[in-house]
């Protein structure tokens, strides 16, 4: 019998040619750490067990009577951040690149029908890498007596793609793995050593979408189903006495069906079915969390808890986040009494942040539970631990959050910049095919904090716009650094000093699969008096953003030599437009994106004279 791992493992970017109202599964719906799931198995074999499918019409699948909740139950605990596990070091100290190191681990159990060594992932810790390309299996450690050995994936196995849907098309995937053990028991024969290697190939094809009926009157709509052809081959090299024997195990071929639904806090994988090529049902199981509770509380303007925050949004994050969309699991609005409630939450680990309305609370930070402005210092709410340690705890974990505020000192300095995403789209984490590099994609809705140096006390904050832009104003004179607060990802910092109306323009942060990187730390014009010697008085761009051409207008105070330099968001020069010596007065230059080879993105035009430089941002759509 395969396992809950298989349920997740073989679900990938799916499907083709469906109606637009068919569901799309978001990768952010990945299990929360600390949740325990119950697997309810059906081992009854039956003809015509495969679900009917259609790429055009929604289906109804009724499996409400084939499962027996009192039979063959098995728990699987999902744990985030694999480095908390004893075997994590086996898969993190091999000199591997960052993209091959695990970020999560799962311990999987399943009812055993046999001891076939092809079931290498049953009764095992499974180590996966979650990043912007999807979820891949990079290692496993099986604790069964016959198989307790580490399994290394030289070519990782696709676990979950990003955003599968009926429109995603058929995908083929191949993975390779190997392992070894000093002694080995197989068919009651003790071997001195064993080497195992294998390969799995999978073909993911469209199947259907619709409504799933399960025991207990549970009905799920907007369910997506994948049909996956799985072929797994395993070869063994074993030593008995002085001799080595090589043999191959029978090829394991099956058709697996995976039923998925967007579920903010639980697993998106509702049900698994395995059949042979003729649609004969061999076994199946459903998954559901063991315990369900609530998280609620109040937001206050300060620690006195006399005034509630009456206008704002509450964000629920996975505790121990990963890269995807800040790992926002759910949102809810504050009531007029400052109250919030997240209902039907499986026991596990979570974080909560209050985002107060900026018009009503202009100096308030995004504030996490624990009264912190940083996700790294925020408290994690563990509803399972609350239930285990407090006999009075019923089903609601109640927390209060007190807003933190920006420095109210009035200053005349400011900084601005962009927060962008750079990642390989549809790329494997290993191998020759790197996919397409998606660059300079704006990341909206993320807090950028200016912190004081030394000490790191918060001063001011901005939230990135839909274009990934931010601007922090009213900074008092002093030393600061910028940090990006994106839950789950550590951030580089950009140090700077401001005084006398300093303007810092052009900070750029980029995010990849594992951290926030500083790409450009801005250049500064230190004061108004410094800028006054610049012979360029005004700079305008129209239109901006633009599609093909835009016109740059500027005024120079005296005859002078003028150069135009265009740089991208990484500060690299992409065009040089010398204008020669120009006379005092108004001037204009047409910027042709096609002629200059500019693709869609954000650029900076530097208008330079011997007396200084003015800069202006342009956006090519």
Structure description:
This protein is mainly β and 621 residues long. The protein folds into 4 domains: 4-289, no CATH class; 292-402, Immunoglobulin-like (Sandwich); 413-528, Sandwich (Immunoglobulin-like), CATH 2.60.40; 533-620, Immunoglobulin-like (Sandwich), CATH 2.60.40.2550. The chain is 4% helix and 52% strand. The strands form 8 sheets. It has a 12-stranded antiparallel beta barrel. Strands 25, 26, 29, 32, 33 and 34 form a 6-stranded mixed sheet that branches. A hairpin with a 3-residue loop joins β11 (193-214) and β12. The longest helix is centred in the middle third of the chain and has 7 residues, at 383-389. The two termini are 52 Å apart.
- The total of helices stands at 4
What is the overall shape?
globular
- For the record, give the distance between the C-alpha atoms at the N and C termini, rounded to a whole number: 52 Å
* Rg computed from alpha carbons, rounded to a whole number of angstroms: 29 Å
Topology of helices and strands:
Elements: H1 4-9, E1 36-42, E2 59-62, E3 74-80, E4 104-108, E5 124-131, E6 134-142, E7 150-160, E8 171-181, E9 184-186, E10 189-191, E11 193-214, E12 218-240, E13 243-248, E14 252-260, E15 269-275, E16 281-289, E17 292-300, E18 312-318, E19 328-333, E20 339-346, E21 349-356, E22 367-368, E23 381-382, H2 383-389, E24 396-402, E25 413-425, E26 436-442, E27 447-452, E28 458-463, E29 469-475, E30 478-485, E31 493-498, E32 503-511, E33 516-520, E34 523-525, H3 528-532, E35 536-542, E36 549-556, E37 560-567, E38 573-582, E39 585-592, H4 593-596, E40 601-609, E41 612-620
Parallel strand pairs: 2-11, 17-24, 25-32
Antiparallel strand pairs: 1-3, 1-16, 3-4, 4-5, 5-6, 6-7, 7-8, 8-11, 9-10, 11-12, 12-13, 12-14, 14-15, 15-16, 17-20, 18-19, 18-21, 21-22, 21-23, 25-26, 25-29, 27-28, 27-30, 30-31, 32-33, 32-34, 35-36, 36-39, 37-38, 37-40, 40-41
């Amino acid at each position: 019998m395969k396992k809950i791992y298989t349920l997740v493992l073989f679900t990938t970017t799916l499907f083709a040619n469906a109606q637009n109202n068919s569901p799309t599964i978001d990768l952010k719906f990945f299990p929360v750490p600390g949740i325990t799931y119950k697997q309810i198995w059906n081992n009854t074999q039956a003809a015509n067990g495969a679900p009917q499918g259609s790429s055009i019409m929604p289906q109804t699948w009724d499996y409400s009577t084939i499962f027996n909740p009192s039979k063959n139950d098995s728990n699987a605990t999902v744990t985030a951040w694999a480095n908390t596990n004893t075997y994590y070091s086996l898969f993190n100290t091999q000199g591997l690149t960052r993209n091959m190191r695990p970020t999560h681990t799962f311990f999987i159990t399943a009812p055993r029908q046999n001891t076939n060594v092809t079931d290498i992932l049953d009764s095992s810790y499974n180590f996966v890498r979650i990043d912007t390309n999807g979820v891949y299996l990079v290692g496993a450690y099986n604790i069964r007596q016959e198989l307790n050995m580490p399994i290394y994936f030289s070519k990782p196995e696709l676990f979950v793609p990003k955003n599968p849907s009926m429109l995603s098309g058929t995908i083929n995937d191949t993975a390779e793995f190997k392992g070894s053990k000093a002694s080995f028991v197989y068919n009651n024969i003790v071997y001195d050593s064993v080497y195992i290697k294998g390969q799995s190939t999978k073909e993911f094809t469209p199947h259907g979408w619709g409504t799933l009926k399960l025991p207990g009157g549970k009905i799920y709509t907007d369910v997506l189903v994948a049909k996956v052809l799985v072929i797994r081959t395993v070869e063994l090299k074993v030593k008995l006495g002085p001799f080595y024997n090589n043999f191959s195990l029978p090829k394991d071929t099956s058709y697996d069906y995976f039923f998925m639904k967007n579920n903010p806090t639980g697993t998106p994988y509702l049900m698994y079915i395995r059949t042979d090529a003729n649609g004969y049902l061999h076994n199946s199981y459903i998954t559901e969390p063991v315990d369900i509770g609530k998280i609620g509380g109040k937001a206050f303007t300060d620690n006195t808890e006399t005034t509630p925050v009456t206008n704002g949004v509450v964000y629920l994050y996975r505790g121990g986040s990963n890269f995807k969309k800040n790992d926002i699991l759910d949102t809810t609005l504050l009531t007029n009494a400052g109250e919030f409630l997240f209902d039907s939450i499986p026991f596990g680990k979570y974080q909560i942040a209050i985002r107060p309305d900026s018009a009503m609370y202009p100096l308030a930070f995004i504030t996490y539970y624990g009264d912190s402005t940083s996700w790294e210092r925020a408290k994690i709410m563990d509803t399972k631990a609350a239930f285990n340690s407090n006999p009075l705890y019923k089903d609601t974990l109640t927390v209060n959050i007190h807003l933190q505020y920006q420095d109210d000192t009035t200053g005349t300095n400011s900084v601005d910049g962009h927060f962008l995403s750079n990642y390989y789209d549809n790329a494997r984490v290993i191998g020759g095919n790197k996919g397409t590099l998606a660059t300079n994609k704006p990341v909206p809705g993320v807090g950028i904090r200016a912190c004081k140096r030394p000490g790191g006390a918060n001063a001011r904050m901005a939230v990135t716009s839909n274009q990934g832009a931010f601007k922090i104003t009213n900074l008092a004179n002093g030393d600061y650094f910028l940090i990006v607060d994106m839950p789950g990802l550590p951030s580089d910092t950009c140090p700077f000093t401001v005084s006398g109306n300093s303007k810092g323009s052009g900070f750029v942060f980029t995010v990849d699969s594992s951290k926030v990187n500083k790409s450009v730390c801005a250049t500064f014009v230190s004061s108004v008096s410094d800028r006054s010697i610049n012979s360029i008085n005004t700079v305008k761009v129209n239109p901006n953003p633009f599609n093909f051409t835009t016109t740059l207008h500027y005024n120079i105070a005296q005859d002078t030599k003028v150069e135009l330099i265009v740089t991208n968001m990484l500060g690299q020069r992409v065009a040089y437009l010398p204008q020669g010596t120009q006379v005092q007065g108004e001037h204009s230059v047409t910027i042709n994106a096609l002629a200059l080879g500019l693709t869609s993105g954000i650029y900076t035009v530097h208008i330079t004279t011997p007396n200084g430089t003015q800069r202006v941002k342009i956006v090519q759509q």
